[in-house]
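Quick one:
INPUT:
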């Protein structure tokens, strides 16, 4: 024999080293076996044609598991071309997937069922490959019982690691293993009982224990899955008689026989020895069961002889036949009952199918896609770790249920495998696709499936909800905590979310699934047999999808003409028209979506937008949260919690950039230059369910360290220090902890001190709005230059002294207030501080509210003077004494704010603190008080309900603070020259209305200003116009808070306020001209005369006179070719108690003149060629109205105004004019003549109030009589009261 080469010698040395580690010699039944290595080498030479595979190396099980991280395959005897052909064929169904990479490794080991490594009770029926270093699961397409505990060489295999690298993978045996030693011999003469004789034994009344054990033979017609119930693994097989249709069930549950499941093949004949009979306790069904000594052998007619059963059992066959007939009869009756069900209930078809796995839809839920068109569901079968079911694998399905469209939103036909189905793996995948094993325990999909005995439609809906839930929030809390089941401990967030939904759609009394009847009954019954197509009752999509769908719904069917009344729009100029279209909104509820939409999100707060947000992996949705009792939302402990909201208002603010010349062009969408929107949600906290409570935010700060991003220089000014960013990851808050140590808190601290924290209690006495202020810091981008900082200020009052805590969790009580209650007020001084929030501390803006008690917590700090060291005077001491101005304290980025309680909620022991707060609270006024002439305050705070909001031009005398800087600020969707006008009433039924103007530059941080919402306005500036009207403006020190949300049944946003209700009927004598903001009212009056009348066409662009189709402005020339018609008139009305001048505009002028719509339209068209027509009539002279006596239209209007037909009774809706008439008013209490028919009266009349016409209605005779009688009745009762007084 030739000497081995150096390479062969090295290879043999490595082989001997492998054998010493992994393949020790063992004792055989006939004495010592030959050395395993020599036998292995002999097999290798035989496989390689006498040569050793020097290009391959041995690998142990341990090395394979720990060193091989990617899927791979090894083919010992294949050439390169053979491997390429094999890999190419595997890519046929999935060409985009890469084939398994080839490795040159030799795998040698023992095939075992795991009984020696584990307790026999824990044997799961799986096969393993083991050596001296470890054990690994394996899958084989062909297996023989004599292979167990034998040493094999595996010529072709693939290793598939798990996607979770912390767990081991498994081995797919691609070709039959080569035995290293000779196989064992099998006995050749077995006495058997054929099934035709054995089947009657199952119905015999003789006790099972009295019968002797049998050996039966038959054809395998059905093979049940491996089941594990109560830590007991078993399976059923069904043998059919070789000469008849009789079949019997056999229960296999002994640990040493579970490997039979890998041998059995449908249609093959087998012999099973030592069977006994048993019955189920619940149903009494009988079956054969294997014993410890039972053997499974392939059936061979030459090796068996028939043995009849005991003679004393033969008499039972008659009864068996009758029982079988009864069962068939009952089965036919059951079928008849089922056919009477409603037609909407579908019955699944039972089919067989062979297909290729093309995608794992959800491994945990047991959903696989076959051939890119059929979904295979194994959840009702048994997942059995789903080894081998990788994309590219071929499976054969026998007796599976075909369900078409079980869930309307599910795109595939479903093949459902029940416990009577058989799933056979026909070939392994040749692709490098991962292995995603389903969880054998704590699988929430399967637990909810079996707990509620769900049908396929509900299960698919459950899977879709749970898939989306896991994808959205596992990055925040981890998959394990989200999907935690209540069977082990407290339920996880997913179960809290899903269980109420399932309980709402599943009947109260759900029948438990009887798996034994499902397997053993001759008439098949299972949850997949009948189904009803399901429309999902609800949905919980990602927040990015929510925003997209909401935006689509808001623009769906949208037309600019919807926002304006045609009667108003036709009189608007270009600027006013496009301004009114620039901002609108749309409100959606959960029922606005089909199916109903549930909002889920992690509550966080953004320091960039200073707003609360709901966040998931996909996006963040700003939110406004209120309490139903009107108290503000301040629960800082909820930051980072997972919330579920079903009752909400999803608001889409729509922003349009348009250049419509006039209202006639509103249908032409070419004038829409841009569309943007902003989406946010608002809801009440009482409608929130907390699915997962957050970790303490302070503990997160402890782990990440603490620092200040604002530092003090020697001169007291502020400067910023650079921050070291950490690895990018999803966070519940915006702040990024600084890696520097705080010079005031961190220096030289021990580990015990790092766990401590310093806190200080305070109460908020004033809060200002968020805006750009002149606190200048260096720019973060380049470190050069200066820029204004977004910030807000709050004046607070310290309560007690700073407290040192050994751990942040101890800061739950209020020792500062309790100590004050014992020692008096000496320890609780009135020390005011102006808190400055900027940078990342802006996240606390939504939580700070008046009269709230809060606590600042400085983690990892033991310096009780940390707050005093950071304070500085806002102005130099020589300019203003420190006693009259509070110190300024910049709030550090890593400080935590914790809301404790409200001043009104303090206990009796803490009431002493209220005396210190006396005089510190902000006065809240009422709207009538502010509107009264005697009110003297300049800064006012009040609450009211928004009745209307309108976008208007900025007030000419208002110059918003730092307007230039705000225009450049990102996120503003409105032009800076716009203002928001809010009409606010004191109460829902009150007509006392005040106008509030907010510049567009402030609107970026204001959410929820919608009609119907009740708002608390703080520190607004009260102003009086030149017409003596009171209004308020939002300034730098102002702030707003949402008290309550609008109702969902409000009229369309563009509807005028008060349109839904009819105004009350009043007398002119009851009007008080000095009263501001009179509510809308109605009078039954007589139109006396028309004082002045003006009809004109003006340019839509510059408001000059528009004549003969063009603008009359010449210097500079106006390019507009569009005119807008306008009309106005002053009329005199009286109701018997007094007179009034009424200003009518536009369409109300035609109604006053008694013209029809066609007549009014023709009259205005005639004015277009003239540009303007004006007349004056009555007792007013010198009012500046220019008449053209020769003009036909003027003559027509003059005659019309003098006609007695105009002087008629009308029903007039009005409000007090905020701009009184410039017509000179008569002196008070003048004598006036009144004529009624031929009788003339003289009476004293007071000054005429100026009214603004809102609507004119003609009065029919019946209505006039009724209103007159009501007026006489009210007048009589009023006179009686006066006479009595």
């Amino acid at each position: 024999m030739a000497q081995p080469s150096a390479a062969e010698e090295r290879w043999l040395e490595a082989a001997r080293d492998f054998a010493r580690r992994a393949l020790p010699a063992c004792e055989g039944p006939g004495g010592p076996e030959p050395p395993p290595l020599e036998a292995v080498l002999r097999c290798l030479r035989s496989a390689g044609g006498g040569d050793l595979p020097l290009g391959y190396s041995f690998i142990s099980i341990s090395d394979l598991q720990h060193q091989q991280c990617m899927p791979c395959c090894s083919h010992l005897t294949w050439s390169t071309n053979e491997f390429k052909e094999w890999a190419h064929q595997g890519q046929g169904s999935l060409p985009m997937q890469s084939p398994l990479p080839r490795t040159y490794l030799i795998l040698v080991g023992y095939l075992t069922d795991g009984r020696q490594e584990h307790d026999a009770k824990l044997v799961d029926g799986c096969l393993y490959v083991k050596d001296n270093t470890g054990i690994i699961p394996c899958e084989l397409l062909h297996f023989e019982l004599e292979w167990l505990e034998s040493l094999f060489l595996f010529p072709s295999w693939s290793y598939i690691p798990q996607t979770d690298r912390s767990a081991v993978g498994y081995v797919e045996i691609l070709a039959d293993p080569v035995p290293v030693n000779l196989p064992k011999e099998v006995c050749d003469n077995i006495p058997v009982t054929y099934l035709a004789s054995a089947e009657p034994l199952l119905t015999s009344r003789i006790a099972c224990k009295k019968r002797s054990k049998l050996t039966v033979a038959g054809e395998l017609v059905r093979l049940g899955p491996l089941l594990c119930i109560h830590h007991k693994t078993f399976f059923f097989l069904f043998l059919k008689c070789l000469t008849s249709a009789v079949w019997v069930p056999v229960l296999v549950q002994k640990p040493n026989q579970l490997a039979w499941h890998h041998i059995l093949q449908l249609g093959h004949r087998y012999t099973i020895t030592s069977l006994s009979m048993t019955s189920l306790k619940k149903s009494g069904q009988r079956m054969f069961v294997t014993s410890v000594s039972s053997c499974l052998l392939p059936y061979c007619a030459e090796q068996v002889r028939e043995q009849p059963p005991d003679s004393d059992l033969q008499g039972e066959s008659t009864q068996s036949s009758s029982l079988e007939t009864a069962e068939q009869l009952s089965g036919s009756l059951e079928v008849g009952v089922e056919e009477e069900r409603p037609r909407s209930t579908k019955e699944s078809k039972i089919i067989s199918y062979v297909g290729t796995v093309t995608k794992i839809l959800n491994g945990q839920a047991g959903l696989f896609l076959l051939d890119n068109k059929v979904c295979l569901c194994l959840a009702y079968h048994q997942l059995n770790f789903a080894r081998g079911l990788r994309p590219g694998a071929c499976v054969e399905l026998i007796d599976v249920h075909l369900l078409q469209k079980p869930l309307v939103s599910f795109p595939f036909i479903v093949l459902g495998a029940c416990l009577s189905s058989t799933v056979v793996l026909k070939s392994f995948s040749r692709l490098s696709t991962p292995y995603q094993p389903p969880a054998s325990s704590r699988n929430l999909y399967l637990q909810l499936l079996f707990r509620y005995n769900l049908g396929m439609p509900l299960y698919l809906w459950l899977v879709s909800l749970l898939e989306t839930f896991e994808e959205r929030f596992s990055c925040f809390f981890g998959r394990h905590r989200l999907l935690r089941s209540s069977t082990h401990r407290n339920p996880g967030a997913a179960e809290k979310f899903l269980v109420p939904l399932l309980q709402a759609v599943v009947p109260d009394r759900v029948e438990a699934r009887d798996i034994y009847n499902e397997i053993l009954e001759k008439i098949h019954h299972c949850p997949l047999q009948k189904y009803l197509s399901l429309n999902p009752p609800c949905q919980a999509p990602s927040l990015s999808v929510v925003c997209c769908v909401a935006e689509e719904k808001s623009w769906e069917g949208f037309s600019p003409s919807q926002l304006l009344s045609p009667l108003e729009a036709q009189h608007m100029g270009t600027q006013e028209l496009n301004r009114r279209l620039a901002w609108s909104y749309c409100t959606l509820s959960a029922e606005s979506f089909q199916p109903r939409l549930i909002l889920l999100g992690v509550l966080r707060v953004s320091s960039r937008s200073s707003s609360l947000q709901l966040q998931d992996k996909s996006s963040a949705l700003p939110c406004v949260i209120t309490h139903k009792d009107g108290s503000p939302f301040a629960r800082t402990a909820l930051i980072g919690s997972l919330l579920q909201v079903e009752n909400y208002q999803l608001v889409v603010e729509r922003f349009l950039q348009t250049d419509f010349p006039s209202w006639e062009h509103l249908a032409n969408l070419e004038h829409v230059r841009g569309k943007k929107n902003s989406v946010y949600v608002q809801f009440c906290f009482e409608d929130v369910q907390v699915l997962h409570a957050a970790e303490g935010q302070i503990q997160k700060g402890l782990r990440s360290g603490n620092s200040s991003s604002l530092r003090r220089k020697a001169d007291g000014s502020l400067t910023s220090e650079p921050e070291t960013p950490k690895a990018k990851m999803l966070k519940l808050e915006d702040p990024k902890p600084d890696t520097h140590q705080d010079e005031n808190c961190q220096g030289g601290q021990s580990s015990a001190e790092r766990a401590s924290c310093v806190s200080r209690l305070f109460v908020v006495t004033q809060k200002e709005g968020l805006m750009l202020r002149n606190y200048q810091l260096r720019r973060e981008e380049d470190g050069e230059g200066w820029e204004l900082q977004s910030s807000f200020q709050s004046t607070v009052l310290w309560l007690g002294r700073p407290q040192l805590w050994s751990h942040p969790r101890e800061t739950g009580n209020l020792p500062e207030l309790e100590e004050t209650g014992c020692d008096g007020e000496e320890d609780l001084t009135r020390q005011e501080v102006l808190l400055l929030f900027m940078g990342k501390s802006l996240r606390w803006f939504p939580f700070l509210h008046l009269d709230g008690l809060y606590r600042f917590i400085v983690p990892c700090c033991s310096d009780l003077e940390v707050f005093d060291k950071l304070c500085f005077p806002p102005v130099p001491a020589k300019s203003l004494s420190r006693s009259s101005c509070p110190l300024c304290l910049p709030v550090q980025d890593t400080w935590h704010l914790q809301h404790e309680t409200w001043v009104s909620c303090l206990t009796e022991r803490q009431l002493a603190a209220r005396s210190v707060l006396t005089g510190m609270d902000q006065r809240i006024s009422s709207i009538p008080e502010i509107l009264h002439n005697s009110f003297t305050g300049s800064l006012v705070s009040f609450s009211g309900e928004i009745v209307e909001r309108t976008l208007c031009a900025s007030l000419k005398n208002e110059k918003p603070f730092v307007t230039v800087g705000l225009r450049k600020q990102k996120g503003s969707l409105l032009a800076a020259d716009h203002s928001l006008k809010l009409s606010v009433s004191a109460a829902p039924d009150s007509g006392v209305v005040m106008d509030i103007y907010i510049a567009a530059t402030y609107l970026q941080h204001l959410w929820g200003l919608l009609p119907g919402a009740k708002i608390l306005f703080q520190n607004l500036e009260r102003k009086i116009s030149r017409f003596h009207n009171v209004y308020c403006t939002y300034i730098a020190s102002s702030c707003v808070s949402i008290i309550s949300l609008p109702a969902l049944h409000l009229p369309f946003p563009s509807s005028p306020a008060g349109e839904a209700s009819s105004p009350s009927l009043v007398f002119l004598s009851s009007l008080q001209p000095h009263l501001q903001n009179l509510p809308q009212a109605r009078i039954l009056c007589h139109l006396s005369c028309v004082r002045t009348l003006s009809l004109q066409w003006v340019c839509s662009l510059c408001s000059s006179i528009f004549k003969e189709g063009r603008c009359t402005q010449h210097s500079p020339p106006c390019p507009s070719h569009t005119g807008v018609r306008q009309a106005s008139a002053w009329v005199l009305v009286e109701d018997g108690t007094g007179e009034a001048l009424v200003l009518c505009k536009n369409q109300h002028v035609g109604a006053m003149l008694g013209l029809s719509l066609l007549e009014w339209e023709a009259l205005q068209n005639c004015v277009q060629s003239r540009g303007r027509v004006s007349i004056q009539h009555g007792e007013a002279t010198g009012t500046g109205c220019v008449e053209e006596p020769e003009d036909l239209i003027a003559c027509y209007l003059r005659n019309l105004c003098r006609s007695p037909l105009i002087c008629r009774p009308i029903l007039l809706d009005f409000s007090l004019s905020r701009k009184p008439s410039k017509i000179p008013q008569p002196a008070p209490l003048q004598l006036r003549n009144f004529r009624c028919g031929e009788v003339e009266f003289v009476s004293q009349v007071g000054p005429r109030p100026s009214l603004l016409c809102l609507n004119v209605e003609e009065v029919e005779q019946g209505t006039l009589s009724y209103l007159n009688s009501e007026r006489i009745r009210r007048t009589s009762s009023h006179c009686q009261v006066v006479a009595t007084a």
